[in-house]
Amino acid sequence: MSATQLSLESAKQANLNLVEGRQGSQALHQTVVAYRANRRSGTACTKNRSEVSGSGKKLWRQKGTGRARMGSVRSPIWGGGGVVFGPRPRDYSKKILKNVKRLALRTALTGRIRDGAVYTIGAFSVADGKTKSFVSAVSSLSDGRKILIIGAFDESTFRAGRNVARVQLISAEDVNAEHLLGYDTVLLTPDAVETLARRTA
To answer: Quick one: CA torsion of 66, 71, 76, 77, rounded to 10 degrees?
Structure first.
């Protein structure tokens, strides 16, 4: 099994719809920001002075003690008091139009091909489902530090590669612009090229 570097010319021959120049850079930025924002849980929460536990009794009389006036032990300026303008649960998710996501995918794919980071391979599978066999197969294809393999894989291949941190297997239907940017080397199986050609059309 060997890997062949995918050039811009061969990508166009494979019907991959690429972008010209800096077209799509804004769409790529917006899409990656949205993907990351959509993964945020937004569950950070602090208690304000009405929510922390503590008595509502006035600590000392208003005048005559020589001390600063104070009305509640739950005041934010006291230790254990409420938090002023702290985080509250919120929704960070962003909506991205389908044509913007498609343009972002085309832009990311074009950039990686220009960088010489995209290779085509034959069908990739590990029949025995063993991690050692998986690592050996990947090493024969690329010596990249982080490798993304795009294609259709059987259960034994997924099982063999699930504990290899530097390699990710993903289907061509699920891959997005952020995936393409996050790996040193991208390997495409023949069926992945066909699917990406359809998705970038």
So the answer is: 0
pLDDT confidence of residue 181: 94
Residues 4, 120 contacting (CB under 8 angstroms): yes
Average pLDDT for 30-42: 96
Strand order from edge to edge, sheet including 185-188 = 4-5, 118-120, 185-188, 147-150, 167-170
pLDDT at position 32, please? 97
The phi, psi pair for 157, rounded to 5°, reads: -70, -45
Q: Which two structure tokens, joined as six digits, stand for 50?
A: 């009405």
CA dihedral 101, 148, 116, 112 (to 10 degrees): 10
Helix-strand-coil percent breakdown of the chain, rounded to 5? Answer: 35, 10, 55
Q: Which of 191, 163, 192 is nearest to 179 (CA)?
A: 192
Residue 195 and residue 73: Cα distance in Å, rounded?
63
